[in-house]
Design brief:
The chain is mainly β. It has 2 domains: about 100 residues, SET domain (Beta-clip-like, Beta Complex), CATH 2.170.270; about 40 residues, no CATH class. About 0% of the residues lie in helices and about 35% in strands. The structure holds zinc ion.
Amino acid sequence: MMEHDYVRVMPARIGLGVFATETIPADKCVGIVCGEVFEDHESDYCMDLDDGTVLEPFAPFRYINHSCNPNCEIVVWDRPGHPNTLWIESSRMIEVGEELTLDYGWPAAGAIRCGCLSDNCRGWIVDETELGLLQSPAPHEPDPDTPIGFSAG
Ligand SMILES: [Zn+2]
């Protein structure tokens, strides 16, 4: 499996996930999201960039899963000569062995059921502000057969 400074890709509850190999303090840059930038591209892993292009991330952050109560966020860093650099930053302390998660914040049109099991789970992988746009109410118990995110492959 691919090694990284603070993290390792390992099997998660569903598919693969990114796990801390050491304690990560809050507000720490865990790593740069490396990948390939496309003008027009869609995949289960891609991340939208501000200029309308999309980034197809490489491992390890390719495998970071969604949670409605995430411990990481994506920060955009526009360096001269390197626009649109994305990095993963811890939003709270992360213990060794804990899975790193992001809030994908998908638009309602692309929302799928969420099975993250966090106390504040919205029931859907969707941007908080677009939750009200979903037609049907969120199920109380997410279907365990529904993949929770990017790591299904
Ligand atoms: Zn959830």
